[in-house]
């Protein structure tokens, strides 16, 4: 049996009392170091040291206080939803292999060795809607009726051709692991409007199509990366309790739970004073948030007080816990209570085959609920300062993957152009922004890179993306990175 040396207690105490170089500078930044430095730099430095540990966000008047991001994982086809190309009908099955060779396009391993690349026109009808005359597919009849509320961007582009890096770029600003997500950046920069709920909540909607190609996603898409852990998205479960272990254990009254947390807080404060690890503070804050959520979450999740008109607006599926419609309604309830950023993940849009069947099912899943969400926010006076974003990680190809028939086709990944829409929160409504060529292959007017979208989103939230950073590993990390990104005035009301 292993025994501890006689001086183990002294050794342990010495370790706890030791201070690393990094801890020294961390402590100095909040103690005597700041006092000495501020005496040298004057009043402006003292004001900065006394304020929040954030950079100057740019003094931009915010148009939006909160945001809802509807993330369609797998990438919906722009050719079948928003980017209407009627002339392609006359080019059905035309082999564009030679034309593709001149485009310098990267092809995925799924289509690179195809003998032919036949043009696959959409089989769905389009019509113009709203004062903007936006062309919208028959697959989205409810969304089409609110064309005047939307800003449809047909000229999005990205750097990635496969799902995981593309999703990471869209939702964290980088294809590299370890970066902070959009919601975490906003939680860090702006904080919460409700101390009883997280600033950033993630909802995972069930998809109704059992035959869909459902892409796996990881917590990196809503993680805090290098930011303090308290800014990570809190994932609500679609079934059962939204958050695990929400209820106190049997025999543990509320008062006892409060005393336990107070005792734990005291231990953590002592540990932090000795070690200086910020994760200790994060853990304490998470305990406190969990305690408050024990009363706030049951009220939030109870839809019993919603009138029948709400379910008529979102669709009867909103009564089905975990459905997309239910998630959309929950998103409204969350932002209504002060949650800063809500992200709804809806998977199953990766349609390499059987696209007409699968995309019809997916659109039916989200169409009315998206309409209901925007109109509900509008009726409650929330849309004006709530930014809603709808879209995937890249587009789909004009050529067919696999066999092509009059009624069936599939499409591969396409990073050069895709379509999304935005509403509310300072966005210019009734707008169609950007154009693509006759093949929906290249952008010919007003390109919007993912980083430009991020810069514009931050601007609407009152943040200058170039001044919004976090020091990590010696670098000033930013959501928009170091590659130039720009705010797009054409998208702003």
Task: Give an account of the 3D structure.
- By secondary structure, the protein is α/β, with parallel strands linked by helices.
- The protein folds into 2 domains: 8-50, no CATH class; 66-491, Alkaline Phosphatase, subunit A, CATH 3.40.720.
- It is 34% helix and 16% strand.
- The protein has 14 helices and 17 strands.
- It has helices at 8-17, 21-28, 32-41, 43-50, 97-101, 141-145, 163-172, 182-190, 254-275, 278-301, 308-314, 324-336, 355-379, 450-460, and strands at residues 66-73, 126-129, 134-137, 150-157, 200-205, 234-236, 341-347, 386-391, 395-400, 411-414, 418-423, 431-433, 435-436, 443-445, 448-449, 470-472, 475-477.
- The strands form 5 sheets. Strands 1, 4, 5, 6, 7, 8, 11, 12 and 15 form a 9-stranded mixed sheet that branches. A two-stranded antiparallel ribbon has the order 2-3. Strands 9-10 form a two-stranded antiparallel ribbon.
- Strand 16 (470-472) and strand 17 form a beta hairpin.
- The radius of gyration is 25 Å and the shape is globular.
- 42% of the residues are buried.
Summary, kept brief:
The protein is an alpha/beta fold. The chain has helices at residues 8-17, 21-28, 32-41, 43-50, 97-101, 141-145, 163-172, 182-190, 254-275, 278-301, 308-314, 324-336, 355-379, 450-460, and strands at residues 66-73, 126-129, 134-137, 150-157, 200-205, 234-236, 341-347, 386-391, 395-400, 411-414, 418-423, 431-433, 435-436, 443-445, 448-449, 470-472, 475-477.
């Amino acid at each position: 049996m292993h025994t501890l040396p006689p001086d183990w207690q002294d050794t342990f105490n010495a370790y706890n009392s030791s201070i690393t170089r990094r801890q020294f500078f961390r402590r100095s930044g909040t103690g005597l170091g700041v006092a000495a430095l501020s005496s040298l730099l004057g009043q402006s430095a003292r004001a900065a040291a006394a304020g929040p540990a954030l950079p100057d966000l740019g003094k931009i008047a915010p148009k939006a206080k909160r945001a809802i991001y509807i993330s369609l994982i797998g990438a919906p086809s722009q050719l079948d939803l928003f980017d209407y190309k009627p002339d392609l009908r006359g080019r059905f099955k035309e082999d564009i292999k030679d034309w593709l060779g001149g485009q310098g396009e990267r092809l995925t391993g799924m289509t690179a060795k195809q003998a032919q690349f036949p043009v696959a026109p959409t089989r769905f009808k389009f019509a113009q809607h709203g004062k903007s005359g936006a062309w919208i597919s028959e697959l989205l009849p409810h969304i089409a009726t609110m064309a005047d509320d939307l800003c449809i961007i047909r000229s999005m582009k990205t750097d990635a051709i496969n799902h995981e890096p593309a999703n990471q770029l869209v939702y964290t600003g980088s294809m590299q692991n370890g970066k902070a997500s959009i919601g975490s950046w906003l939680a860090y920069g702006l904080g919460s409007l409700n101390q009883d709920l997280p600033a950033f909540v993630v909802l995972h909607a069930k998809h109704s199509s059992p035959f869909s190609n459902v892409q796996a996603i990881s917590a990196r898409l809503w993680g805090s990366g290098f930011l303090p852990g308290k800014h990570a998205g809190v994932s609500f479960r679609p079934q059962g309790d939204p958050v695990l272990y929400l209820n106190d254990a049997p025999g543990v009254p509320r008062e006892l739970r409060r005393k336990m947390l107070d005792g734990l807080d005291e231990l953590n404060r002592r540990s932090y004073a000795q070690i200086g690890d910020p994760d200790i503070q994060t853990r304490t804050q998470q305990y406190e948030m969990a305690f408050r959520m024990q009363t706030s979450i049951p009220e939030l999740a109870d839809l019993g007080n919603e009138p029948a008109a709400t379910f008529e607006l979102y669709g009867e599926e909103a009564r089905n816990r975990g459905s997309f419609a239910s998630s959309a309604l929950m998103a409204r309830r969350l932002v209504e209570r002060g949650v800063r950023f809500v992200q709804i993940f809806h998977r199953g849009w990766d349609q390499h085959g059987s696209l007409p069947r699968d995309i019809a099912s997916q659109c039916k899943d989200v169409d009315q609920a998206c309409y209901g969400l925007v109109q509900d926010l509008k009726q409650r006076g929330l849309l004006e300062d709530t930014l809603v974003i709808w879209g995937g990680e890249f587009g789909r190809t004009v050529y067919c993957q696999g066999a092509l028939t009059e009624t069936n086709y599939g499409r591969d990944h396409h990073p050069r152009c895709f379509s999304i829409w935005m509403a509310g929160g300072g966005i210019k409504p009734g707008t169609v922004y950007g154009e693509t060529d006759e093949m929906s292959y290249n952008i010919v007017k007003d390109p919007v890179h993912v980083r430009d979208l991020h810069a514009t989103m931050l601007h609407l939230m009152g943040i200058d993306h170039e001044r919004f950073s976090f020091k990590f590993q010696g670098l000033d990390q930013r959501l928009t990175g170091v590659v130039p990104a720009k705010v797009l005035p054409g998208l702003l009301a």
